[in-house]
Amino acid sequence: MDANNILSGKKILLGVTGSIAAYKAATLIRLLVKEGAVVKVVMTPAAAGFITPLTLATLSKNEVPMNISDHNSWNNHVMLGRWADVMLVAPASANTIAKMALGLCDNLLLAVYLSATCPVLFAPAMDEDMWRHPATRSNVDKLVAYGHLQIPIASGELASGLFGEGRMAEPEEMVAFLQQHFLKKEGAGSLPLSGQTAIVTAGPTIEHIDPVRYISNHSSGKMGIAIAEALAAAGANVQLVLGPTPLQTTHTGITTWRIQTAQNMYDQVNALYPQANIVVAAAAVADYRPAVIADRKIKKGEAQLHIDLEKTPDILRSLGDHKGAGQLLVGFSLETNNEREYALKKLREKHLDLIVMNSLADAGAGFNYDTNKVTLFDKNGKEQSLPLKSKQEVARDIVSAIIELQHA
Ligand code: PMT
Known about the structure:
alpha/beta, Rossmann fold, binds ligand PMT, globular, five-stranded parallel β-sheet, 2 domains
């Protein structure tokens, strides 16, 4: 079974609610239709303030009902819910999520949702404060407890002008999520990691000093992207959290989340973590950032300039501290000296299952090369020193070690 044609002929019922992200519904429908899916749309009256039913009807080639009755005829919400292979509510506003959690039914979309017998997916979109409110947290938990699947939200610029969590996933990411959903459902085969979700961090982070300068490192993202691709080839649904790099991957089993700072990476990884079986932290995350970001360009003046730095959150350590049963954590260790000692310390202190040690003292290893030379240490005391290999081969060795640990 191939992710590239898994959506062909699938009946997708898209529920659009009142959120500025409703404009993305148009692109989503176009992408789904291009994949061969049959799309029907139902929208709330509030959604029509953000995008017209005519646009969505034209793109989906199907009427878009909005009310329980239109022009003296009754819209059969039960049959719509029964028709679909999957119902995707995107964007799912805080209001609609709350009503879905309570079973309220004051519009057609909610009536369809309550009568749907198919799997339900939802892609939240709202402001960060609304997303973090305990009421929203508990409503989302309820939907997940009902067996619905939440498409992870993204961090970035929000409609309010603020930055943070709350952006709806991009249409391409939702298509990838749907593909993975159907691949899993149809038993995409007996690949060793089928049905598992893996997060991979990759690339550098950048920490702003002022509007024109930042602190970063030489990571290209090659190692992390190779790992994401090896995990996807082994059947995992991969969430790649990628720092600034011109590199990308087009593997259909991988959803890419672009971030800039260590804090962005921390937020994105934590949003994805509850659904993850495996995390591989290959990113070179800045350990320090300027305590204050100047809002104007710092002018050249004194002979010396001092910038106060503060620690960034240690993403891997926090994942290790909150590791759930069955979650497997893989870290990297990059050093220039005392490599073994430091790697084993990180394995222990960050509660990892496996650590991949690479050293800048080894020719052809580390940043930007197409090759790497690594030693793997696992939590059971196994040590595996590998020769210099391509990053793709190293990635496959890491994935084999992960599979072995899952069966240990
Ligand atoms: O991207 P390439 O050019 O292909 O280069 C690959 C690589 C050299 C970046 C990669 O092989 C590698 O070693 N990545 C980890 C680099 C690093 O930051 O290592 P560290 O020893 O400082 O960190 C230990 C672990 O904690 C790492 O898994 C790191 O992702 C994680 N970490 C570190 C700091 C932080 N604030 N949060 C973290 O999660």
